[in-house]
Specification:
Blueprint: E1 12-18, H1 28-38, E2 42-46, H2 56-68, E3 72-77, H3 91-110, E4 115-118, H4 131-152, E5 156-159, H5 172-188, E6 195-201, E7 206-207, E8 213-215, H6 217-223, E9 228-233, E10 235-236, E11 243-244, H7 258-267, E12 276-281, H8 291-294, H9 297-319
Parallel strand pairs: 1-2, 1-12, 2-3, 3-4, 4-5, 5-6, 6-9, 9-12
Antiparallel strand pairs: 7-8, 10-11
Helix pairs in contact: 3-4, 7-9
């Protein structure tokens, strides 16, 4: 995945893994071993219930364990919507979001990780009228975090574009408006703030209540390129309802053409603000907590990683 092509900007695309599917069923050491055996060395550390309360010593051990297998913890990103307290009027939730977001940044610094990120959260659907105010509250908050992250030694904060109206941004117009505002905030005081970027997802598009696709996943993905720092690799169906990996039994029902993803990244590389982009396999994993399903995770991860690497090799051979 680290092979470069002879293009003007020479964008490098690397493969990584987000740690979500091992939560409460496999250890990090298990995942690090699997990644090393598959030749994938970038980890996006996903959050979990105890994450924000664990002492520094836990993360020092985690970093040492990863490094012993040649794994780089290159990103931290939330696994749920737990940092969404600014999208509703309950002040207590916003206070916890602030506290935990700051702790996530501190953990990134401990791990010598240059970037941390999250989704914006979700507006209560029975209070959807709060959405504009919630977005503005989040933007004010994330600007403060861009300053805090700079003080902690980070380089970027990222945000994930989502797939429904209750979880902004959900379309290219919102994505651009938010991206431009935060990008300009950084440019106005680059010595005091980290860069802002998107952690996009190749499987995210927007379908309405009637299941009509308003914006498809590819157009949405491309719209994020002027702000793109990293992205999530997973498969999905035609209305973005379920997500899954690239294991053999899931390929036929998925709509993600991996070679097409590589092509649009390389063809649009001049609009992307970085020269290396990591695509993290964000596999939801099999049904949790069943003897007959937890055991599937190893095969699903291996097959998905092997498929993504094979697609890259074939694409590179054709287009290099």
């Amino acid at each position: 995945m680290e092979k470069k092509l002879d293009w003007e900007k020479n964008l490098t695309i690397e493969l990584g893994v987000k740690s979500d599917p091992i939560q409460y069923r496999y250890s990090f050491d298990w995942l690090f071993n699997l990644m090393a055996e598959e030749g994938v060395y970038n980890l996006q550390l996903g959050t979990f219930t105890e994450f924000y309360s664990l002492p520094d010593t836990y993360f020092y051990r985690l970093k040492e364990s990863a490094q012993s297998k040649g794994i780089q913890i290159s990103s931290i990103f939330t696994s749920h919507r737990e940092l969404g307290g600014f999208l509703n009027p309950e002040k207590e939730l916003a206070e916890i979001t602030r506290k935990n977001y700051q702790r996530m940044i501190e953990i990134a610094a401990l791990l010598e990780c240059p970037v941390a990120g999250s989704s914006m959260g979700s507006v209560y659907r029975d209070q959807i009228e709060y959405r504009p105010q919630g977005i503005q509250s989040f933007l004010n908050f994330i600007k403060e975090m861009m300053v805090f992250a700079k003080d902690q030694g980070l380089s970027w904060l990222t945000l994930e574009p989502m797939s429904c109206y209750a979880e902004p941004p959900c379309n290219s117009v919102e994505l651009k408006k938010i991206g431009d505002e935060l990008k300009q905030f950084h440019l106005s005081q680059p010595e005091k703030t980290v860069c802002f970027g998107y952690c996009s997802d190749v499987s995210h598009g927007w379908a309405n209540q009637e299941k009509t696709v308003i914006e498809n996943n590819l157009d949405y993905f491309i719209a994020s390129f002027p702000y793109l720092y990293e992205f999530h690799f997973k498969n999905t169906d035609s209305i973005y309802n379920s997500t899954f990996g690239f294991e053999s039994e899931s390929l036929e029902r998925g709509i993600i053409d991996v070679k097409q993803i590589y092509s649009i990244l390389m063809k649009n590389q001049k609009t992307i603000p970085v020269t290396k982009v990591i695509g993290y396999l964000e596999h939801p994993g099999p049904k949790f907590g069943r003897d007959y399903s937890d055991c599937l995770l190893e095969r699903w991860l291996r097959e998905s990683l092997q498929y993504l690497q094979k697609q890259w090799t074939e694409w590179s051979t054709i287009f290099s």
